[in-house]
What we know:
By secondary structure, this protein is an all-alpha fold.
Amino acid sequence: MLKAIHAQEDLKTAQAKAKDVIAKLIEMKLRDAAEIVRKGIADTFAYYAFPSTHWRQIRTNNPLERIIREIRRRTVSVRSVPS
Length: 83
């Protein structure tokens, strides 16, 4: 459900989708989850302030995961990290 919110074309439709998701969570008797989404969803819309070509890189953590994977790969091959 959260992916559907962030897959929207613009901020207004994403906010509308978030309201739908919150209503669905309440309907499913998941009031705590609905409250968490309601309180925190606005923070996750910050990437809409940037050009749409950058949204994917901003809203995902793929670059960070890639860096961590590269560090692990290099430290494993060295077997020790020089000081």
